[in-house]
Specification:
two-stranded antiparallel ribbon; mainly beta; globular; 10 strands
Length: about 100
Amino acid sequence: MDVRPLHDRIIVRRLEEGEQKIGGIIIPDTAKENPQQGKVIAAGNGKVNDDGKRIPLDVKPGDQILFGKYTSQEVKLDGEEYLIMKEEDVLGILGS
């Protein structure tokens, strides 16, 4: 994949969670919610403020992040699904 997001956007690969079981009942894939964790694959150069200075992003490629349910756009690149979102949609960085 040779894509660079613009400004304060990032490209994320959703992390798959293990199979969910509740009370011994296996929940089918169609009823599962999409995981809200992902790995940053690419990040833009940052947002430009009112003074014309570029503010670098806090997230970087390789970070594992938490994000909201409805905060991203799904795209398919090279046959794989990715999410594109703004840095402000990231709720936290895991393990930092």
